[in-house]
């Protein structure tokens, strides 16, 4: 399944022109769509690092 998806995107071919060795193109397409919708195919979001606190500059104090 992964090979079929990789082949499609590497070659830029249309789904209907996927080689027979990967099986029915509709099955490959539907599996990719299902994975994209449920988040299996998406890149996982990582928590953002905490922002460093800024310190005032060491310039002259304002009166």
From TrEMBL:
Residues 1-43 form the Insertion element IS402-like domain. Residues 42-63 are annotated as: Disordered. InterPro entries: IS402-like_dom, Transposase_6_like. This is IS5 family transposase. It comes from Streptomyces coacervatus. The lineage of its organism: Bacteria, Bacillati, Actinomycetota, Actinomycetes, Kitasatosporales.
């Amino acid at each position: 399944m992964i090979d079929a998806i990789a082949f499609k995107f590497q070659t830029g071919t249309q789904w209907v022109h996927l080689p027979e060795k990967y099986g029915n193109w509709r099955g490959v397409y539907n599996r990719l769509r299902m994975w994209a919708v449920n988040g299996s195919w998406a890149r996982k979001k990582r928590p953002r690092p905490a922002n460093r606190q800024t310190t005032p500059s060491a310039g002259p104090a304002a009166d």
